[in-house]
């Protein structure tokens, strides 16, 4: 994920250039799910606080990305944001709230959050591996 200084560049140039906004959308989903996890825990105030702040920042990044993205990229990223951050998040909340017992709900959300976070941290490594494979072949 590009650092916030990339957004300074995006706003200044009024273009997303070759940046991919998927990481911002996925990080917004992750921080939203961690916030839900914090809400489920009786002592989750620290988890809630840091992830609400992260969700706000990621939402700003996603909005700025979409504002300055080319039209085809804008449509694609709006769809992805809608599917993941509205559809998937709402589905997870509804299913865990309606179909799981309270004692299981925290565990299910915790595993989901941990898995998503692991995938997010591993994704740059995956792209490096693909670049290495392309270079070698």
SSE diagram, text form:
Layout: H1 4-13, H2 22-40, H3 45-68, H4 71-99, H5 102-136
Membrane topology: Multi-pass membrane protein
Family: Belongs to the SWEET sugar transporter family.
Keywords: Membrane, Repeat, Sugar transport, Transmembrane, Transmembrane helix, Transport
Plain-language structure description:
With 137 residues, the chain is mainly alpha-helical. It has one domain (21-136). It is 85% helix and 0% strand. One of its GO terms (molecular function) is sugar transmembrane transporter activity. Pfam families: MtN3_slv (PF03083).
Q: How much of the residues is beta strand, in percent?
A: under 5%
**Helix proportion of residues, in percent?**
over 70%
What is the succession of H and E elements? HHHHH
- Calculate the mean pLDDT score and round it: 85
What does the main sheet amount to? none
Overall structural domain count = 1
Family: Belongs to the SWEET sugar transporter family.
Transmembrane segments: 21-39, 45-68, 80-98, 104-122
Protein name: Bidirectional sugar transporter SWEET
Organism: Papaver somniferum (Opium poppy)
């Amino acid at each position: 994920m590009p650092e916030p200084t990339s957004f300074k560049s995006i706003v200044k140039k009024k273009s997303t250039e070759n940046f991919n906004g998927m990481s911002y959308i996925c990080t917004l989903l992750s921080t939203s799910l961690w916030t839900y996890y914090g809400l489920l825990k009786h002592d989750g105030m620290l988890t809630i606080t840091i992830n609400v702040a992260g969700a706000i920042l990621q939402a700003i990044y996603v909005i700025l990305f979409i504002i300055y993205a080319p039209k085809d990229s804008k449509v694609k990223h709006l769809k992805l944001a809608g599917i993941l951050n509205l559809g998937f998040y709402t589905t997870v909340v509804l299913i865990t709230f309606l179909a799981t017992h309270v004692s299981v709900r925290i565990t299910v959300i915790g595993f989901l959050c941990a898995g998503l976070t692991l995938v997010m941290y591993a994704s740059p490594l995956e792209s490096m591996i693909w670049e290495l494979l392309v270079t070698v072949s």
